[in-house]
Amino acid sequence: xxxxxxxxxxxxYSNTCRVAGTTDTFKCRIQGRIDLxxxxxxxxxxAEGLTNCDAIVTERLDRATALFKSxxxxxxxVAANITHxxxxxxFHPKTSLEFIDKWIVIALHSEIQPFIVFNKIDSLEKNAxxxxxxxxxxxxxxxxxxxxxxxxxxxxxxSFLENETSIFVGNSGSGKSTLTSALTGTHILSKELxxxxxxxxxSVSTLYEVENQMKVIDSPGVRDIGIEQLSHAExxxxxxxxxxxxxxxxxxxxxxxxxxxxxxxxALNNGDIEQSRYNNFMILNDAANL
Length: 290
Known about the structure:
Blueprint: E1 5-12, E2 16-20, E3 25-30, E4 41-46, E5 55-60, E6 66-71, E7 74-80, E8 84-89, H1 97-109, E9 113-118, H2 130-136, E10 143-145, H3 154-160, E11 165-169, H4 176-184, E12 190-192, E13 199-201, E14 205-209, E15 215-218, H5 232-237, H6 240-246, H7 263-269, H8 275-288
Parallel strand pairs: 3-5, 8-9, 8-11, 9-10, 11-15
Antiparallel strand pairs: 1-2, 1-4, 1-14, 2-3, 4-5, 6-7, 12-13, 14-15
């Protein structure tokens, strides 16, 4: 019989989960109505009198971080205790700058370190991503150029993620499953979507841990995360360079468009702010405050 111990959820289903405990991995039932997701640290106890499970989850420990999705202003966690969020960027399919900026906002709001992974460099000319890198080089966002398919430059990314818990986001076809497989040594299955919409992974949320203490969470729930639950101030905080300038605007309720004394517009006109970053700030801010 197992002893009462602390573990981490490494697979989550609707009413059961797998927990990596201090002595082994256990199939667990969930006691009561505890809100749990993959990555949660929990306390487990013996499953006395129950069949088809090894233990019972009795308590969830405090989360350091979490990613939430929102529907009708009701938020629900999809993964927890993440330290790093990787944004996959490709030319084929093309990743929009709005997608990149949205996930930077989400990561920073969640107190998670965002980083950008330029994937599929094997099919591109050298320095193909240079113009994109120029946009983000002064924002303290780490960037990596790799080919997940051919394991090119993965050693730098692996070193960066050592002792960290990461999750990757990307459009269908960006290579998220291929990269997760390459990092974890586990083949992540993908299924074709209808109407040539790309691929998606299995519906089970899973946490993989490899030898260098790197943990990677693969969760289909991140596809549904938006920014509609965020306030104007929370969106603005995701645009560091604009946030710093907004504090210098002449009027506190400046809309950062045609407002008199707007430090943001002055910097934009002087070329001190990237046009795409300003455009996406306005787009995301409008979307979050509908």
